[in-house]
Amino acid sequence: MSTKKIRNFCIIAHIDHGKSTIADRLIEYTGTLQKREMEAQVLDSMDLERERGITIKAQSVRILYKAQDGEEYILNLIDTPGHVDFSYEVSRSLAACEGALLVVDAAQGVEAQTLANVYLALEHDLEIIPVINKIDLPSADPNRVKQEIEDIIGLDASDAVLCSAKSGIGIPDILEAIVNKVPAPADKSDQPTRALIFDSRFDAYKGAIAYVRVQEGSIKMKDTIRMMHDKKDFDVTELGIFTPNLVPVQELPCGSVGCIAASIKNVADCHVGDTVTLANNPATEPLPGYRKAVSMVYCGLYPTESKDYENLRDALEKLQLNDAALEYEAETSLALGFGFRCGFLGLLHMDVIQERLEREYNLTLITTAPSVNYKVYKTNGEMLEVDNPAKLPPPTEIDYIEEPYVKATTIVPKDFVGTIMELSQDKRGEYQSMEYLDETRVSVVYHLPLSEIIYDYFDKLKSATKGYASLDYELIGYKQSPMVKMDILLNGDPVDALSIIVHKDRAATRGRALAEKLKELIPRQMFEIPIQAAVGTKIVARETVKAWRKDVLAKCYGGDISRKRKLLEKQKAGKKRMKSVGSVEIPQEAFMAILKVED
Ligand SMILES: Nc1nc2c(ncn2[C@@H]2O[C@H](COP(=O)(O)OP(=O)(O)OP(=O)(O)O)[C@@H](O)[C@H]2O)c(=O)[nH]1
């Protein structure tokens, strides 16, 4: 089969610019699915994704389109995740395509995330078709946005498709543009097979399923496939394409997009970015660009009820089957008991996993404050990677510590440049460059410690710029920093799960702020609870939670008994997500308090 009638494309867009809505319209217009079959937004399949309105895992769909030239084309739409945390998956999805729709909101214009994705697409030599969406909005200004696309990205936007996914305007033009502008895949069917895995999923019956783009050769039923990086062989049990429901096929020919089931027990054997070849005629080199997912953020997850430990382990195991980027290992905390240290791609990934554990597996969890991974060089010449503050060796054993740094690109209206600089400086940022994108907007680049980004940089950025700033960041390496461990003592005892690693110049202020915050969060108990923040043996802050009962009930003026009972019940309910540490009850919020403190 020739590849001439195939077009593989993806949609890149900033969050909320309308990627999913456009995908739905393309599917609807071509009759790929009947309207009644369409759930609202087919491509975002997970419940959580729908609720949060973001794409977490890529999906793809085959669209049959009869073009104006009278020919029928196979358009494979490969969906890309829409969040910074998942940029590696985006890059693999792009590598599976020849073209990309660049969707830009007609009112908002080009944003940081758009830029990051466009640069990725250009790196992969994709043909880019600009689409200006939401032209129905009263605030739409397509001409300004066209100009921005030309000035900022340097793409010719003169024949950008004007579209309103909401009302269906421009959808036929998008389909024609895909057929006419996106190149057909190169026909390399006579070469040894190489297929790129751009996504994977776990199916309880079929095992891990690889979503692939066949770059060279082909894959047939009953072939034995080989994962080139993992060097493992599997017998194909099923090949399929998505319409978007899975339809079995006998062959995935060169240029096509589809999925492979091969009784692969674990998604960890089916890495996004790996190359599939055939065991009886293997290719010599894998496709370029393979990278293992790296965790950026770590936290401890502990069941509030210790009897749930095994359930939590089972749940993590199941989630990991579907999500090769999730890492976990058992750990114990003096304060919290048995739990797991988990690694995530970013804060959103962490939130999503936490929420799924609670919702789908019915667990109540205590989560410790997120931490990054530090490289600790010890005086004995050893290097330790530490992602849990409680595990930092004593200062006498430490020669120096390195922390991860990111390159953070922020795009803001020019009035906010001062604010961004102040904020970044305050977060130990190092100024790199600034560029006027047009008369109104500026792109500012800083090198920042990852730990500052995960604390509250993004929230602060959003509030300081009234939501106008957009942020994109990538890991650039490690740098030496004078970091110290700060312990929190409750009632004189250090609580390991509350320890944090901070820059030594910030320890005193953070310690004071944290102690104050903890004082608000820890409910009064029968006795006074001193809260202390300490670096080594030096106490940097102290607060006291006063003893409770009479205070709480005092508010009732000794009167109405039902009111009293209600109050006590409210306190009891509040205890659900609490953990007794020694004699002190600590609520979940306390463990995350560090994220909420003001410097
Ligand atoms: N007025 C108007 N609203 C639109 C249009 N297209 C999409 N929207 C709305 O914009 C919002 C975001 O659209 P989505 O399609 O979910 O955006 P997305 O880019 O897929 O978002 P992510 O999945 O997070 O990347 C939704 O509320 C849509 O209803 C349009 O043409 N006009």
UniProtKB/TrEMBL annotation:
Any one annotated GO CC term: plasma membrane
InterPro entries the UniProt entry points to: EF-4, EFG_III/V, EFG_V-like, EFTu-like_2, G_TR_CS, LepA_C_sf, LepA_CTD, LepA_IV
Spell out the reaction equation it catalyses.
Answer: GTP + H2O = GDP + phosphate + H(+)
MF (Gene Ontology): GTP binding; GTPase activity; ribosome binding; translation elongation factor activity
Q: Name one GO biological process term.
A: positive regulation of translation
Q: Membrane topology per the record?
A: Peripheral membrane protein
Q: What is this protein called?
A: Elongation factor 4
Source organism per UniProt: Veillonella tobetsuensis
